[in-house]
Amino acid sequence: MTGIPSQITYTVTYKATRKAGVPADKAGLAAALLNSSQQVGGALGLAIFSAVATSRTTHLLGQHAAVPRALTAGFHQALLTGSAFLLAATFIVLRNPNAHGEAEHPVQLPLTELT
Predict the structure, then answer these.
(1) Around Cβ 87, how many Cβ atoms within 10 Å?
(2) Cys-Cys with 74: which of 17, 57, 64, 102 at CB 3.0–4.6 Å?
(3) Within 10 A of 58 (CB to CB), how many other CB atoms are there?
């Protein structure tokens, strides 16, 4: 079950490092940093969204709400929080000038004389 998604993730990570202008000798390091960031982000996201869902569910159960309603509201709150994080990430990526693979400053090559 995890073979295909992990291969897709690897392919995307490899292509992202190639498009970002990373030299070939540093591509492995860049891919490892991207992969580690994805792993940490996934773990942190799961922790945050689980805490949001648990908090909302516990609050509603404290008010004597039905268990299915409390669970649904907790998951709903976690998904809304995830959507807010996704919108914030989209805004950050679109505002970052280097996210499009553009150089921050144009590189000036030295002129050589032709003789």
Answers:
(1) 10
(2) 57
(3) 11
What confidence tier does 26 reach under pLDDT thresholds 50, 70, 90?
A: confident
Cα–Cα distance, 58 to 70 (Å, whole number): 8
Are 17 and 30 in contact, with CB atoms under 8 Å apart?
Answer: yes
Tokens of 20: 């970002």
Task: Return d(Cα 93, Cα 95) in angstroms, integer.
Answer: 5
Tens digits of residue pLDDT in 34-76:
888 888 988 999 999 999 999 999 999 999 999 999 999 999 9
Beta-carbon count within 10 A of 57 CB = 21
Q: Are 93 and 99 in contact (CB under 8 A)?
A: yes
Name the DSSP letter for residue 101. T
